[in-house]
Q: What sequence folds into this?
């Protein structure tokens, strides 16, 4: 599936079926950042919807949608995790809703649908809770650059090296992706895979719920008083609860622009047969952090708009 091939280039633990979004750590970090910024009224409302009064009320549901899509009952929801931009990286990046959102729906139409459903007074409590769980997840996914890209990169066929070892792009991604491994990741089966767990443990300190919480605390500080302070207001430019398609498409376009600038700035051929463990990896890390920070901040604003009518940020 071309979407899956493209999606696997970055951040993703590739050996697991749930590898197609941010991994567990990424989604939970997005959720905790949102938790840190929502108003108390928003917190109360969503704790009630989700039936969880703990501080983890968003984090614990943030990966449910990736589990659900791999059940027989949830197969239909797979296209909702992406929008396949039919652009032409690296020379031209861009997302157009009417061109790129397929008939089965996409992450933009899903954000629209679940924004509407979470506010419904006629749906059952269970359906409203499901809508909230989808929304928390999809606002994370839409910030992952390769969730907003249709280019078929065939990661398994693109030969590259990592630390001098021959492998393919699909595997390489595991290096970058291992910042966001799956919580229940299988133990490394060989030495080549050991960096799948070693890298994240070094960078974040692990991938338990508590690690997501502390990673979120670091990024929250960057947003409040650190390197993102001056730009955070611009992250909410154009945000409009009454026009979810325009709002979500602007988030998708923003993330998609990194396909041209960071994921493959010089095209597929420049990535092919090269070693990605150095400069490529180093350049990817700040974008990963930035996109997770934006996702958490925008999720907080969106939930505030739903619960209270204003962002409060
Ligand atoms: C909205 O979500 C519901 C529940 O998941 C789904 O059955 C329906 O097909 C969705 N509608 C659209 C237009 O996406
Ligand atoms: Zn997903």
A:
């Amino acid at each position: 599936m071309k979407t899956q091939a493209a999606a696997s280039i970055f951040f993703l633990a590739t050996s697991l079926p749930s590898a197609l979004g941010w991994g567990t750590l990424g989604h939970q970090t997005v959720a905790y950042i949102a938790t840190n910024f929502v108003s108390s009224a928003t917190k109360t409302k969503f704790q009630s919807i989700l039936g969880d009064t703990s501080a983890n009320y968003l984090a614990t549901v943030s990966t449910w949608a990736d589990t659900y899509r791999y059940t027989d009952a949830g197969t239909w929801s797979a296209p909702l995790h992406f929008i396949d931009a039919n652009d032409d990286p690296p020379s031209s990046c861009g997302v157009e809703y009417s061109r790129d959102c397929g008939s089965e729906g996409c992450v933009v139409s899903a954000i629209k649908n679940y924004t509407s459903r979470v506010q419904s007074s006629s749906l059952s409590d269970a359906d409203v809770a499901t809508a909230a769980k989808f929304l928390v997840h999809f606002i994370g996914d839409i910030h992952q650059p390769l969730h907003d890209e249709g280019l078929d990169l065939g990661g398994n066929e693109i030969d590259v090296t990592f630390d001098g070892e021959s492998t393919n792009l699909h595997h390489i991604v595991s290096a970058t992706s291992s910042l966001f491994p799956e919580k229940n990741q299988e133990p490394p089966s060989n030495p080549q895979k050991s960096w799948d767990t070693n890298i994240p443990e070094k960078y974040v300190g692990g991938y338990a719920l508590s690690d997501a919480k502390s990673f979120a605390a670091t990024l929250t500080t960057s947003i409040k008083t650190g390197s993102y302070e001056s730009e955070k207001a611009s992250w909410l430019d154009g945000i409009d609860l009454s026009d979810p398609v325009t709002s979500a498409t602007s988030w998708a376009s923003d993330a998609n622009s990194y396909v041209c600038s960071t994921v493959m700035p010089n095209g597929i051929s420049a990535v092919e047969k090269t070693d990605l463990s150095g400069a490529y990896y180093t350049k990817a890390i700040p974008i990963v952090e930035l996109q997770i920070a934006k996702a958490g901040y925008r999720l907080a604003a969106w939930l505030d708009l739903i619960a209270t009518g204003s962002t409060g940020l």
